[in-house]
Design goal:
By secondary structure, the chain is mainly beta. The protein has helices spanning 6-11, 75-80; strands at residues 27-28, 30-33, 40-48, 54-61, 69-74, 82-83, 87-88, 90-91, 98-99. The termini are far apart.
Length: 113
């Protein structure tokens, strides 16, 4: 599966461009997930790097209770994850851009960066 499409590239805000947007209002543009278990990445920003890779910023939930956090992940990192049965990280093809508050069930104190 192609994780990063031209459509996502054209709608993804560049890194650091939404710093002044309240966290619960940050627009999540795409969602990547582990189809075989824990691991979900809600991507809010991204920029192509000099080496051609993409660096994303988003809300990452790796399935550890109370440890989801904002952070960075590269496209190469996501693509390098090898799962059983020759599977890898996938993109939620039914996901539509929406504010973080609409996709993550949490209290406002957990929204802090």
């Amino acid at each position: 599966m192609q994780l990063l499409t031209d459509e996502i590239k054209s709608t993804l805000p560049p890194l650091y461009s939404t710093e002044n947007t309240p966290v619960h209002e940050k627009q999540i543009v795409c969602k990547f997930f582990n189809p075989m278990g824990a691991g979900t990445w809600y991507i809010a920003e991204g920029s192509e790097q000099e080496d051609g890779d993409w660096l994303f910023f988003g809300y990452c939930d790796l399935g550890i209770p109370d440890c989801a956090e904002w952070g960075y992940v590269s496209l190469a990192e996501l693509e390098s994850i090898k799962l059983p049965f020759d599977m890898g990280i996938e993109r939620d093809i039914l996901f539509s851009p929406t504010p973080l508050a609409g996709v993550v069930n949490m209290t406002m104190t957990q929204f802090e960066i």
